[in-house]
């Protein structure tokens, strides 16, 4: 029986698939959209508050000063991904329409997602302080780097003004709860540390909420109606190939650089993700007058695939013995 259960899907992956199916048939719409967005924001804020209350100051300092790991993550996010999209153009173009390939190149220029990258890193028992620092910094840097990258590698992208609204949202939703958790750590840190199951529930719950709200928006935008079946299937293959290449390179690079297992987990989850929350508002500005729906469809598809794949990877990492965590941060 034990041999058989090894091949059964992870329980969280089943929850994830159920959430996608639920959003496909019963997407949030009308008044339900802001309600679910607010609930998701509250869950993410609670997640960062609990992480702030749980993490020691020493761990946070170690995460900030782990410059080699952060440099590799940023290089993967803003340099490697666009190169993958350009080098694989002869393979990807026949699979999709020109508009969808434009969207693929756009997603390659985006910053990393924050919430799910940190949540999956936490689930997999990776270097959470480094993930918090890296993912948050990636979103901030992306506000400046992504428009420049789009202008360089995406045909007919044009010039676009940069909005600083995302900076305030990141500060309010992520950094502020984390700082508040740190400030209250003296009084609630021990209580939070003893209740790891609570953190796990918030981690997984926030991911499921992000999946439902994001997929609901995609369905409401005509995800299953506005794209030919062959192009949609080709897009799934293209996104899967790009994600597989990114995961493979980050896995190999982490070993070559001599990082510990928690650091390699952080590199994989923070270096292979692309932000849907940042991508859609940017697309509306950068591609004004274009078919924005077709341009953001690859991002929506990639977002779902990365969540599914990373959920499976996080589940596998989480099952390793406690003594396999490692506590080092490379040879910095």
From TrEMBL:
The chain crosses the membrane at residues 12-29, 35-55, 67-88, 100-120, 132-154, 166-185, 235-258, 279-302. The keyword Transmembrane helix applies. One of its GO terms (cellular component) is plasma membrane. Pfam families: SBF_like (PF13593). Keywords: Membrane, Transmembrane, Transmembrane helix. This is Bile acid:sodium symporter. Gene3D superfamilies: 1.20.1530.20. InterPro entries: Na+/solute_symporter_sf, Put_Na-Bile_cotransptr. The lineage of its organism: Bacteria, Pseudomonadati, Pseudomonadota, Betaproteobacteria, Burkholderiales.
